[in-house]
Amino acid sequence: MRSFPPDSIRNVALVGHGGSGKTTLAEALLNLAGVTGRLGRVEDGTTVCDFEPEERSRGFSLSLAVAPFVWKDRYKVNLIDTPGYADFVGEVHAALRVADLAVFVVSAVDGVEVQTEAIWRLAEEVGLPRMVFVNKLDRERSDFERTLDQLRSRFGAGVAPLELPIGQESDLRGVADLLSDSAWYYERATGVGAGTHGAVPDDMEALEHQVHDNLVEGIVVADDDLLEGYLEGKVPSFEELEHTLAVGVHAASVFPVVCGSALAGVGIDRLADFLCEIGPSPADRPPTEVTAGDSTVTVAPDPAGQALAFVFKTMADQFVGHVSLFKVLSGTVRPDDHLVNVRTGADVRLHSIFSMRGREQDPSAAVAAGDIAAVAKLGTTVTGDTLAPRGTPVKVAPIEFPEPLLARAIRARTQADEDKLGGALHKLLDEDPGLVVTRDDETHQTVLRGLGETHVAIALERLDRKFGVRVDTEDVRVAYRETVTAATGAEGRHKKQSGGHGQFGMCSINVAPLERGGGFEFVDRIVGGAISRNYIPAVQRGVEETMARGGVYGYPVVDIRVELVDGKEHPVDSSEMAFRAAGRLALRSALAQAYPVLLEPVSQVVIVAPVENQGDVMGDLNARRGRVQGTEPLAGGEQATTALVPTSELGRYAVDLRSITGGRGRFTSRHDHYDVMPQHLVDAVRRDVAAEA
Q1: What's the rounded mean pLDDT across residues 300-319?
Q2: Where in the chain is the domain with CATH 3.30.70.870?
Q3: Protein fold of 7-284
Q4: In this predicted model, what pLDDT tens digit does every residue of 110-147 receive, in sequence order?
Q5: Domain spanning 599-692: which CATH class is it, in words?
Q6: Could you tell me the maximum CA-CA distance found in the chain, to the nearest angstrom?
Q7: In the Cβ-directed half-sphere of 25, how many Cα atoms lie within 13 Å?
């Protein structure tokens, strides 16, 4: 594919709720532009953007995909198709970082759904220009007016319709263009094609003129000169309206709404025109902020500047290996260029550069600032890395992915799987930074965290398919603790005679509880040389070993004070090993007498949910033994609730909160402290431990 200057490039992210038709819309645009010879279908697994086997089998997108096309031989449009399900919103975060325009695809049947609202909030936070394509107007129960009302109520007065549908449901045959006061008609039987220009139908002419006048009034108020002429009776030209509208779009203050049907091919050419005519190019967007040492500087998309690229997606391809998708922020990148990975300091050579269209690769001789391309075999480069010239250590802020809160423990199925597991997990995380893998040394589990059950399930499928590693899953064990609630004393005597020198060590200790979080204290109270000084550290090591191995309930012991008060030794048979054993025996005996209790970890949870869901959220927290600390009203009809909840009750909270709030709730969690577990629950934990043993 040939190189395009920044002002002829459009980086467009297709976003919205799952099932709204984003992938089908991408397919229609590619087909209309002549990139594909036929219109692929999601149901048949034949679309360009859904090329992974897991996507084709499930019938929905799981990761972002780039699909460029050239429009009218003047513009290059880089479509970034994104998943619409909450489990994969990390891919949306990556797409929004490199897009210059977000097109929200909204179903005219289902209206504005929860993920559309969530992604709109993300785009709003970064000031990204937005427009809306109301899709599926050819379906039964579709309603453009209802959907438009929902858009206005959710997203404010900046929502501005540029088109009205001509016909309803199966009778959809065109769109009325409110800017030009004209219409476009489509022969649906012929598939995706350009519309035929004509007049607005008589039966909707009055409505179209009324909405046109409202639109013009909304546009001219943004331009003082245009407004003055309009008030004096001067009718603004189409070019003036379009220019002023584009300024509002670029400033993310006006959000145009266009409509049609991706599957029926209605309004697709008009959408492509709007993307290029009023959509911002990289040159229209604010310069990128980068850090250079302790300072922050801006970088403009100048093809003649120093080369600077940002990696926003990493993939493992079975044919070419490691593939890095990147956006050129400055300069022009060519094959065999040498850049430096700012994170690692390693020199990287861009052996071959290509445009990716789904999984297809089209070699590129040069990629100018503002454009998106891919490069293979940059093994140490991962998502979020900055590639810069040597001697120019500037760095782009990494992508902030949502915190994964659903955890599953994984265990290699065979020894062969165990040998490959570490490397495979590393590659899996390179592909999907929204996943997190940790090793819990206390429970001896490898824990995989994702945004939901489907996210984790897909990760495990890819682990098997791509890297040949099979794993079994289990619940994540809770890291309980034990402590004592009363002071007591105990003696530990280790005596063993087996011929020759034996082993002998005896110690007396006092054990007492410390305040929660006090840890461990060991106090030497030996007087009169009852035990030699060199044996006292051995007693302490024996005590600490027993604490680590577990007390009465089998969990590590914390928050105790141990005083070594007396002991005996043998001039021949005593040794450090004997006194370590005596220390272990003494503590075991003391723990059984000191009224031990089980401590459970407690997390501080902050839940953000719509006000109307607060009753259900509170009731659910009570059922989880949560203690609400406070609430705070937020903008947009939401409320934040802070609560302390036992960690054992949060295993599936990511899934349950989504169900309680219809997908509109979200939460963060962090460990806060340990607290005593109720006795009736302790018995259940002991039964679980016994069953595992």
Answers
A1: 90
A2: 409-428+435-474
A3: Rossmann fold (3.40.50)
A4: 999 999 999 999 999 999 999 999 999 999 999 999 99
A5: alpha beta
A6: 117
A7: 36
